[in-house]
Amino acid sequence: MWYCFEVKKYIFILVIVVLSGYAYLQNPYKAIAPSKTKEDIAKEEYAKRVEEEKPYLLGHFSPVNDANFTLVPTAYLTYNTQMYLRKETLEAFIAMQEEASKSGVSLKLASGARNFDHQKRIWENKWDGTTLVDGKDLSKSIPDGVERFLKILEYSAAPSTSRHHWGTDIDINGATPSYFETTEGKKVYDWLTANAMNYGFCQTYDEKGLNRTAGYKEEKWHWSYLPIARGLTQDFKAIIRVEDIKGFKGDEYVEELNLIDNYVLSINPECL
User: Fold this and answer.
1) Which residue from 180, 186, 240, 252 lies 20 to 30 Å from 38 (Cα-Cα)?
2) How far is 230 from 207, CA to CA, in rounded Å?
3) Global pTM?
């Protein structure tokens, strides 16, 4: 009995050795693959983060289906429409609005989150002449592509580069310089410059000068909610490459115009 048991044991061991050898021949590299280093794990985690965050940064998502966003009640809007914002952004705006009202200042939202498709409609309507810019059809008045691109960039971001994608940026009371030249507009702007930072908001595009030599023209209506937007700005800088900015009319000029450095990152230094 003992002899039979020993024979069976050695036969079993022999079978295991043979099968192991077969597995090695099928995939020798897997058999000798070393364990992952901390550096390998860190690279995999970063690649996963990029894969998850890139669509959001570029606006390729729907705020309607994103749990981080919420529908803005019409009471806070300048006109009746469906507008979404990051929940934290809306909460901060409501607190700011309530405080402003105590000083007789009325704050309403003219624009909030705009995904890639929304921004593309705005951009291409100006590119094709459907929306007039300074009273002109740019497709006729500026036939040169680069010059037309630059003209639209005075006040409109190209799709994939708009901070409105993130749900952290808002336009207050109206997106026109003329409003802020009125008595009411000046009062609103004075209050915002004195108080908005207390609620986390920063004027993204201040007047161009020594501190901001490139980018969009001044927008007194555009404010970013910094507790979220500041980190997303740095993520955009680290993750997004020029080849990611595409899918709209005129995108062949993106690299030449260096949109990331000259526009996305060319903001009020206090907002960085």
Assistant:
1) 240
2) 19
3) 0.85
Are the beta carbons of 253 and 147 closer than 8 angstroms?
Answer: no
- Amino acid identity, position 234: Q
Sequence ranges of the domains in the chain:
2-33, 43-271
Q: Is 7 exposed, middle or buried (0-12, 13-18, 19+ CB in 10 A)?
A: exposed
CB atoms within 10 A of CB 183: 7
pLDDT of residue 39: 79
Q: What's the confidence (pLDDT) of residue 51?
A: 80
Separation CA 186–CA 101 (nearest Å): 15
Q: Which residues, 6 or more positions from 164, have their beta carbon under 8 angstroms from its beta carbon?
A: 111, 112, 113, 114, 119, 157
3-class SS of residue 84: strand
Nearest residue to 216 via CA among 127, 150, 147, 121: 150
The CATH code of domain 43-271 reads: 3.30.1380.10
In sequence order, what are the residues at sequence separation of 6 or more whose Cβ sits closer than 8 angstroms to the Cβ of residue 197? 270
The pair phi, psi for residue 18, each rounded to 5°, is -65, -45
18-68 pLDDT per residue, tens: 444 444 445 555 445 568 887 777 777 777 778 889 999 999 999 999 999
> Residue 210 burial by CB count (10 A; 0-12/13-18/19+): exposed, middle or buried?
exposed
**Tens-digit pLDDT profile for residues 209-234:** 999 999 999 999 999 999 999 999 99
Name the helix (H) or strand (E) containing 122: helix 116-128
Q: DSSP letter at 262?
A: I
- What are residue 225's phi and psi, to 5 degrees? -85, 100
